[in-house]
Amino acid sequence: MGKTFLLPSYAIIAHRGNSYYYPENTMLSIKNAVKSSVSMIEIDIHMTKDHELVVVHDEKIDRTSNGKGRVRDYTLRELKTFDFGTWKGAHFSNQHIMTLKEVFNYLANENICLLIELKCPHKYPNIVSILLDEIGHSSFPKNQVIIQSFSVKSLIQIAQFDTQISLGLLVKRRNFWLQNLKLKRYRKIVDFINPHYKSVNSRWIAKIHKLGFKTFPYTVNTFQTGLKMFNYGVDGIISDRPELMIDIKDNIIEAGT
Ligand code: G3P
Ligand code: CA
């Protein structure tokens, strides 16, 4: 069986959950993204010392918790003792790091897709097989998952293990035109090219579509930029402010079609 990912039209993707208002990558930010009726939630994955996949953006926990040090130097049990909410506001103090399994369980009955970013895969031996195993054993439907990464090497590895999972290549702004030259060869591996929004224009979007990719620019947080992206013809928008993007989509884009 091939890939069966069903792409919502004009996907609105809550970046690290509803992260403008709530502590990023926590259950609170995910719950609030679900409440906002987004089509997709983006999360970042690292791995603990005892090989649990956890949802956190940075390699170190210093910025988003009251702890210090690298995720991979702690067991899950140790990481769970830290507070991952207070940095965003004292009233968020009850937030703890989540495992990917917890996210899958929470979203299992929601009609929502999950965009999982594999962070620093070269630093975590076996992370690809552990991730695919967790996806395979979870009750969250595989055809509602996209794995994305800046690491082409990891995406190639995933494609070799699993031909059903949808994949996205993230492209940094400074690499954009360089990567652009190689895009055609990535078509056999990835389904989405997700660039920094400042690299995008309508000509590039047309080209990316002609090559058979879909595209979600990141991270679009203003009204003007959101409107511009929709008018360029992107397939979705990755945003810290998903409600603002939903507003543009419902009241300007779809109302005008
Ligand atoms: O989803 C794309 C975006 O998340 C990539 O950058 O640093 O926010 O993970 P970053
Ligand atoms: Ca990310």
Automatic annotation (TrEMBL):
- Residue span, GP-PDE domain: 10-249
User: What SUPFAM superfamilies is this protein classified in?
Assistant: PLC-like phosphodiesterases
What domain of life is recorded for the organism?
Bacteria
Please name the Pfam families in this protein's record.
Answer: GDPD
InterPro entries per the record? GP_PDE_dom, PLC-like_Pdiesterase_TIM-brl
Q: Which PANTHER family match?
A: GLYCEROPHOSPHODIESTER PHOSPHODIESTERASE, CYTOPLASMIC, GLYCEROPHOSPHORYL DIESTER PHOSPHODIESTERASE
Q: What is this protein called?
A: Glycerophosphodiester phosphodiesterase family protein
The source organism is: Staphylococcus marylandisciuri
